[in-house]
Amino acid sequence: MRGVNATGGAAGDPGEPDGRGAPAGVPARWHLTAALGTWLLPGLGHWMIGERARGAILAVTIGSLYVLGLLIGGIGVIDRAAPLPGFFGQMLIGPTFVVLWAQERLWSWSAIDGTPSLAEGMPIGVMGEQGVLYTSIAGLLNLLCIIDVIYRVGRGGSPGPVGEAASASEAGA
Prior knowledge:
The protein is mainly alpha-helical. The protein is built from 7 helices and no strands.
């Protein structure tokens, strides 16, 4: 005997969403390229699978948190020699590699002409701690977005003949 779902239809009917939000007839699909896009730029993966509004919101919120952390603590908050928890969080967001590249360029330029670098040393005190905290939290939120986009069924994919099967079952009832 088949159960009844919340809408009153029989559980397991074609078109009934399963636990991941996809219709029952649609096979599970991982969006690995979208996950890579999310790591490179927060929100890009959701944009790639067709969820434009969600992608834009994630790009603005996570990107703002990351940039705010860099503005509070300076470019020196991204430090490979820092304790692992903070640096691990920062590595979960792709623009960190751009910041590391910029740090290396600033250090090499200051070594050439002898002027003090903008990227020398870790910021001290509360400003440095807040910068690390903001950038690490942005990275950890981006990890949640990466996990979300891997399993999400976006509007960009074609679900197949589920709508036809649902209309055929309604016609027979």
